Amino acid sequence: MSGVVRPRTTIVRALNTVAAAFIAAVGRLDKSLSPSVTLTKLRNHNFVLSDCMFIFHALLATFWFTVMEHPGFPIKLLLPILWIIALLIPLTSQFFIPATPIFTYLLSFYSARFVPGPWRPEISVVLLPTLEYVLYGANISDILTRFTHPVLDIIAWFPYGVGHFVFPFVVAAFIWLFRSKEVLHLWGKAFGYLNVTGVLFQIVFPCSAPWYELIHGLTPANYSMKGSPGGLARIDALFHGQGYTVTFSNSPVVFGAFPSLHAACATMEALFLSHFFPQTTRYVWAYAGILYWATMYLTHHYLIDVVGGACLATAYFYLFLPDELKGAGATAPPGGLASALRNSSSVGGGGRSKYEIYDLEDPRRRRVGNGSVIHDAAEFEISETSSDDEEMDITYRSPGITPTPASVKPLLNGSAPGKGNENESRVSGQAGVGGRKSHRHTASIASLIRGDERGPEDGWSPVTSSFVAPPATAARDRSRD
């Protein structure tokens, strides 16, 4: 029973943590819809040299919109108009400005098909397999594809055909929830410029993939040739679909083997998670290693493509990583997250009683007829409080001025004749001076415990028929202390 409850409790706590982090992240957002706020920030912004990259984005976007054929004019003008609106609204600009390099990559990848033929360079078919033999002594991709199996196909398909498209969003979401906005901006910058550089290199320096060598050999290639899903065609056959065949056959960049952006993205994701979430290091690098193998097993890249993509990602990560996000700054939580997690812990299980932790029935509760549980009324009793205007400090009571407690009066009444009445009248008279009300305190428990062993030299007044002030010597010793 405990083995079933413990995983369930772990899942609930994880969900509570994510929910609390999401609420805290939403609370950190700028929810303003006024463009004037953005314009004010722009006027107050201190421009630096790195801001010139936005000029590069504007020029590159202008080029791609010029050569873009689908959608045609003037519909394609809606894209830059919507982009400008998203930049002016504070609620959306806090996401779109850091993601500008990523959107530039997507625009470049889509529009690459519209580059005029005379502008395109010659496709290299021989270079990559030749470098493979020179550097590694064999065609590693060819060796890895000689033995295939449906189980290996599934293992290779998941990171290459699913994780590559989903994992970047997962990394961005975790950074947004559990790290500062500076880390999220770094992710958009490093990941975006990595892909922009990779796709531009693939357009300027086109190379054929291993699947081309398997189908066409080393014969010259041309841009009229369709792409191929390679080993992913076995996944289509396994699931009785044509998704990957259609996607890769109509790819905008057919001859983009070098560098491998699949390997580059996996490396960047592993670097980010291992740096900002060190507890995930072994898992993310295992994922990256499997994806490296999958790119070659599915005949989409040579080993040199994988090495080139991984080196490019490593260079961009450390190029953009600022000093304040190294060391302890890498794992520093964003503002408001710690308090949100504490509140979630107290509500979602951190403040549970011992009866709930050990699955026991709380004896303070009782069930009613409809099956609901209520607390006993005794749990909510309000004890009688003193009506005195001023509480008395009972740390030390001087027996000469302290009013007689009600619990001690029976002892005084039962004392020797004359002494008890005399003491009671004396104390009552002192209490009445100044019109102060007597404070209703019970006798000090400490004074009743082993009272016969405590003497006046210790500063105690044993309960007897009358109160006796401490000796003068003891009082002088206490004053000197």
UniProtKB/TrEMBL annotation:
SUPFAM superfamilies: Acid phosphatase/Vanadium-dependent haloperoxidase (SSF48317). Gene3D superfamilies: Phosphatidic acid phosphatase type 2/haloperoxidase (1.20.144.10). The keyword Transmembrane applies. The chain crosses the membrane at residues 47-65, 77-97, 154-178, 190-212, 253-273, 302-321. GO terms for cellular component: inositol phosphoceramide synthase complex; membrane. One of its GO terms (biological process) is mannosyl diphosphorylinositol ceramide metabolic process. This is PAP2-domain-containing protein. It comes from Macrolepiota fuliginosa MF-IS2. The lineage of its organism: Eukaryota, Fungi, Dikarya, Basidiomycota, Agaricomycotina.
